[in-house]
Design brief:
The protein is about 45% helix and about 10% strand. It is an alpha+beta fold and about 300 residues long. The chain has a six-stranded mixed beta sheet with strand order 2-1-4-3-5-6, sandwiched between helices.
Length: about 300
Amino acid sequence: MTPSPGTGDTKRERRDAAREKARITRETEARRRRRNRWFAQGGLVVGVLAVIGVIALVITRSLAPAGPGPLNMASDGLVLSGDGTSVSAATTDALEADADPVASTAGTAEKPSIVVYLDYLCPYCGQFDTANAEQLTTWVSQGDVDLEIHPLGFLDNASLGTKYSTRSANAFACVANYQPDAALDVNTALFAQQPAENTSGLTDAELVSLVEGAGADDPGIAGCITGGEFDDWVASATERALNDPLPNSDEPKVTGTPTILVNGQKYGGSLTDPTVFAQFVAEVASGASTADTSTGGTESTATPTP
C-alpha cells in the first residue's frame, strides 16, 4: 500500500518533538539539581560563618579588658564625710581597667577613718549596719569620722545563680558614679531590704526602685543597674580585696565580711551592740589598747571565704 503524502514527515516531526521535549526536561532537571546543590552549599557556608561569628564574639569578649570602674571609687571604696550638717562623697576619677587602686588618706586621732568591706547579702553585715547605721550617719554628717564603703561580690554563690552580691554591689557603684552624695542612704536601704542568703535576692528592677526610694534618682542610675555597668569592676575589686593587703593596715586581705577597720585596726567585737563599736572607735582614736574589744558578740569575720 502506498503511504499517503506527508505521513513520514509527521512521524519524524513527532519523534523530533519528543526528543526535544526530553532534552528540555533533562536540562531543567539538571539545572534544578545544580541550584539545590548551590543552595545547600550556600546554607552550609552561612551556617559555618554564623558559628565562626559567634565563636569570634565570645573570644573577643573574653579577651576584652574589663571596663573602667565608677567615678569616686578609685580606692575600690567610696569615702563619705560631713560638714556638720550633711554627708558628701569624696570625688575621684574612675579607675581604669586593670589599674591599681589608689589608697585613701589614712585616718587620724582627730578624725578616725572607718573602712568597711561588706557584701549586701551577708547577714553579719546586715547585723552590723542595722545596729550602727544611725550612729555612723551621725558621726559622718557631723564630721567626726570618715566612712569608706567597699562593696564586694563575696557571696554570689548564695543567691541561686542570680549573682545578687555582684548586682547589689554594682547598684551601689552606680550611685557612687552618678549621685555619690546619696550613697550612704542607699547603703542603709540595701541592708534594710536585705534578702536572705540562698534566695534569688532582689531583681534589677527592684534594686532600681530601692535606690530611687533612698533618694538616688539621677537618670543614669537605672540603666547602669539593669545593664550591669560595673559588674566587671565589682569582680576585680572583690578579687583584690580577697588577695591583696588592705591599705593603711596590717591586714593581709579580707577573709570574711564584714571586715571593719578603724584607723587600720580590725574590729572583732559585737555586731549587734553599737556601744561596743563606739567604745572601740573611741579607744582607737585615743591610742588606747584595743586588744580586749573582741569579746561580747558575734565575730565580724564570721562569713567564710567562698
